[in-house]
């Protein structure tokens, strides 16, 4: 007696990706840069994108790989992020949560003081720190000494006063000051009085 033997093989097929490994969420100007490592298991299907979500599961950003920049954060609100990979089957497992931080922004405007000539081609300017540091410590200040021709000389320092000896003798100058924190440059101060270098 002869017969036909039919062999049916059931394949497992692709599934969703495993969990990425979270890296660091580095805060910026009402934003964060989130780093991560791809999952070791893509589920048998190429990963097409990654999704960054906050503590409450709200989608905050997508990208093709690490890092992903998340924008639109609210100042003084605490944030943590998790990442998941996406393939043709669907959304994969979540990573662990990132570090937690409070969102911040750039500082407010510095209050200008007095620009004083201290020698030939030299000057010093005083100022007062902004009332609002943006939610992040001020790390330095930058002064622009601008002349009547529109040329500028910059100088930086950790506080008032800040001086320069790089001015062009005989030109008229004024100064503006900006505070700097981890988010970047704050608003410029008002313009100072003028001097002849």
Notable characteristics:
197 residues, mainly beta, Immunoglobulin-like, 4-stranded antiparallel beta sheet, 0% helix
Write the layout of secondary structure elements.
Blueprint lengths: L20 E7 L4 E6 L11 E6 L4 E5 L4 E3 L7 E2 L1 E6 L4 E4 L6 E2 L8 E9 L2 E7 L11 E8 L4 E6 L4 E3 L7 E10 L2 E2 L9 E2 L1
Antiparallel strand pairs: 1-2, 2-5, 3-4, 3-7, 6-9, 7-8, 10-11, 11-14, 12-13, 12-15, 15-16, 15-17
Describe the structure.
It is a single chain. The protein has 197 residues and is mainly β. It has two domains: 82 residues, Immunoglobulin-like (Sandwich); 86 residues, Immunoglobulin-like. Helices cover 0% and strands 45% of the residues. The protein contains no helices and 17 strands.
Largest sheet: 5 strands, antiparallel
Oligomer status: single chain
Broad structural category: mainly beta
CATH topology of the largest domain: Immunoglobulin-like
Task: Write a brief structural summary.
This protein has 197 residues and is an all-beta fold.
């Amino acid at each position: 007696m002869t017969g036909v033997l039919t062999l049916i093989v059931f394949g497992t097929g692709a599934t969703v990706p495993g969990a990425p490994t979270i890296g660091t969420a580095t805060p910026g100007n009402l934003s964060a840069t989130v780093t991560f490592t791809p999952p070791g298991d893509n589920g048998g299907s190429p990963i097409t994108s990654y999704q960054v979500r906050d503590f409450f599961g709200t989608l905050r950003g997508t990208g093709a790989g690490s890092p992903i920049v998340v924008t639109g954060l609210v100042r003084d609100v605490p944030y943590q992020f998790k990442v998941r990979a996406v393939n043709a089957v669907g959304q994969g497992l979540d990573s662990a949560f990132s570090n937690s931080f409070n969102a911040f922004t750039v500082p407010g405007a510095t209050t200008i003081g007095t620009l004083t000539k201290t020698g030939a081609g030299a000057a010093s300017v005083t100022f007062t720190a902004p009332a609002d540091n943006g939610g992040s410590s001020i790390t330095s200040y930058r002064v622009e000494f601008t002349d009547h021709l529109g040329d500028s000389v910059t100088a930086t320092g950790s506080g008032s006063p800040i001086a320069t000896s790089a001015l062009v003798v005989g030109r008229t100058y004024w100064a503006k000051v900006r505070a700097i924190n981890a988010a970047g440059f704050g608003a410029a101060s008002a313009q100072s009085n003028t001097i002849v270098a």
